[in-house]
Specification:
disordered N terminus, 21 strands, alpha/beta, EF-hand domain-containing protein, 5-stranded parallel sheet
């Protein structure tokens, strides 16, 4: 199959109309599908329907000269899954051999795949997990991208780069009456305080990465460093000394090691990444359930919560354009380069052994949702296909431009007006033609008649099914709340924090907010991924006050990390932090004394950060909600004063 496709590609490349060349920019604001399919063929093995696990989705996009973060890729998969749950009917062996398989590219990491499909006890959706019944038909959650989706996302990212879409400003950003951002509170730095080039933060006992790797290299390079592990026993008297070293250091170098839970370290790293400090982060993923921490095996539920905390931290850091390392030596080499060449960590690239990031804040998944919703609205029979006339209708809905059936017949495999188009083919068609200027559209049709018909037939058919071939029945669609509501408009209060089996939102927060007439966003009802994907970040950015509840019923590691990060960004927060009791039991897991101490240490650190920044912290949810309501009203009054001041200046 691949040989025939490549042969077709060579014929098109040699005999096609040379007046149209995507390398010369004749395909504005987009990467040509011919180029994208060539990239796809290099990644997808010959005759295989699925790329092997060693292949990374990021590398596929990198070859198309776009550089999404892992959370952006997971958002793509998440949004594709939200709109399509594929029912797999039981088939005989002969049916399986005859059935043409759709090529896909899957996630390469077990945690990445799990993070899309399996909500954790700390940040799970209200929707139950779909299950596959081995005895008959079942529902399988997809964790891949099709060729049409790949084309759509690659071109959307390229358009984002060309438009240079700025990072959004949080609506909850704390400002003064003049509209200026209020800077974070800093304790006075002693004039006699020593200044170090590198602060070696992160996991401490029993880790030895500082003595074994970091310190010998830094000494050899002549770089000064502060080692918080320099004393056998850490004590409270070292808090101020460490704070002074963090404030004056040129680079904060943090390692999240797998030998400890690193709860307080994750909270600390989440805060300082937002504090506009040069930050280098290394994360060593946990081994899995049963791994020993302080001599105790961790359960599957605790592993999921700890792994989620690490992944959410990585997502927040990458959202700022900061790459995350998995190797201490490589991270130290880049630290030395940053200090030697006086560059930022965001300026590191592929030559430094990292995956570059470009516009990682950009929400990308909602673009697919809009196409899928338009497609589903016209697919009244739920067949998974729409007619040519419906394609033209959808094209006009999405682009406000006309596309006739005659034009469409020039680029599909069949001239039969009754032929149908699958969603994957629909993505290819929309991607190819939606961005063309109106005056160039006819020119494109003219030069593509002989070329694109063969192209779309040869390119789209191996990726999904041939136009005139019916698709399998039994496509299930998700009718629950969709993520795109997060981008639609502003909310007064974001109800962040512990999810899972907690009921504080329904029982306490929402009734009080309704009584006060305030709007809110509840992430627990929208089927989020465990990861901190850009669409969820957009919901937080569009909220005036961020309320985080760290409950005593959950470990809440990812919630604490998110709260610390937005605290570091200088946002308007209200916190409710509840300590774990001595006999804490979470979802059937009886926590050990060591575990309780670790999770409460993270709570204490978050509370100390909030007190330093003047952020209110409460023990009870009701008091925290009432404070959030009051702060929201205060912010509205301040906004009115700013508007009056601007009108007077005019």
């Amino acid at each position: 199959m691949e040989t025939q496709v490549l042969k077709c590609y060579e014929i098109l490349d040699r005999k096609g109309n040379e007046s149209l060349d995507y390398n010369r920019g004749d395909w504005p604001c987009q990467v040509g599908q011919l180029e994208l399919y060539e990239i796809w063929c290099r990644v997808v093995p010959n005759g295989s329907a699925v790329v092997s696990e060693t292949q990374r989705l990021q590398s596929l996009f990198h070859q198309a000269s776009v550089y999404p973060s892992q959370s952006q890729i997971l958002e793509m998969i998440h949004c594709a899954r939200e709109r399509e749950l594929v029912q797999v009917p039981q088939q005989s062996q002969s049916q399986q051999e005859e059935e043409e398989i759709r090529p896909v590219v899957t996630s390469d990491s077990t945690i990445m795949a799990t993070s899309v499909n399996c909500p954790s006890t700390d940040q799970q959706s209200s929707r139950s997990k779909d299950q596959t019944d081995g005895c008959g038909g079942g529902i399988q959650q997809r964790n891949y991208l099709t060729f049409g989706e790949f084309c759509l996302f690659a071109n959307e990212l390229r358009k984002c780069y060309e438009r240079e879409i700025p990072r959004p400003t949080q609506l909850s950003k704390v400002v003064d009456i003049k509209g200026n951002d209020k800077k974070m509170s800093d304790r006075k730095i002693s004039k006699s305080a020593a200044k170090y080039q590198v602060f070696l933060g992160g996991s401490c006992n029993p880790t030895t990465w500082r003595q074994d790797i970091a310190i010998p290299l830094l000494k050899n390079w002549g770089l000064t460093y502060f080692n918080p592990q320099q004393v056998p026993q850490w004590g409270p008297e070292l808090i101020e000394k460490e704070h002074q070293a963090k404030q004056t250091a040129d680079v904060l170098f943090f390692v999240i090691d797998r030998q400890t839970r690193s709860v307080a370290t994750i909270v600390e790293a989440a805060y300082y990444t937002a504090a506009q400090k040069t930050f280098v982060l290394v994360i060593h993923p946990l081994d899995g359930p049963g791994q020993l921490i302080q001599g105790e095996p961790i359960t599957e539920r605790e592993y999921e919560d700890l792994a989620t905390g690490q992944l959410v931290l990585q997502d927040m850091v990458e959202r700022l354009g900061i790459p995350v390392f998995n190797n201490i030596r490589s991270a130290l080499d880049c630290t030395a380069k940053i200090l030697r060449e006086r560059i930022t960590v965001q300026e590191l690239g592929l030559s430094d052994g990292i995956n570059p990031l470009k516009y990682p804040h950009y929400p990308i998944g909602d673009k697919l949702i809009k196409l899928r919703d338009a497609f589903n609205a016209l697919d009244t029979s739920n067949s998974g296909e729409i007619s040519m006339a419906d394609v033209c209708m959808a094209f006009r809905i999405l682009t406000n431009r006309d596309l006739s059936v005659d034009d469409l017949k020039n680029i599909v495999a069949s001239s039969n007006e009754q032929a149908s188009v699958s969603f994957d083919q629909f993505c290819c068609i929309l991607t190819e033609f939606r961005n063309l200027p109106p005056d160039n559209q006819r020119r494109l049709w003219d030069v593509m008649v002989g070329k694109a018909a063969a192209l779309l037939y040869s390119v789209v058919s191996p990726v999904s099914r041939i136009l005139c071939r019916p698709s399998p029945k039994g496509v299930a669609r998700c009718d629950s709340s969709s993520p795109e509501v997060t981008v639609g408009g502003a909310r007064d209060i974001y109800l962040g924090g512990s999810c899972g089996s907690t009921t504080w939102r329904e029982q306490t927060a929402i009734p009080l907010l309704k009584k006060s007439g305030l709007t809110y966003f509840n992430p627990q009802t929208c089927g989020w991924s465990r990861r901190f994907i850009p669409i969820e970040a957009a919901a937080m950015d569009a909220s005036r006050v961020l309320l985080f509840v760290v409950s005593r019923e959950t470990r809440s590691l990812s919630s604490m990390a998110l709260a610390a990060h937005y605290l570091g960004l200088g946002c308007n927060l209200v916190l409710c932090i509840q300590r774990l009791p001595d006999n804490a039991e979470i979802n059937g897991d009886r926590l050990s004394a060591f575990a309780i101490k670790d999770y409460n240490r993270g709570r204490n650190y978050l509370s100390d950060l909030a007190n330093r920044e003047g952020i209110p912290v409460f023990d009870e949810v009701k008091e925290a909600v009432e404070c959030a309501i009051q702060r929201c009203h205060q912010q509205q009054m301040l906004q009115n004063q700013q508007n009056q001041t601007q009108q007077q200046q005019r």
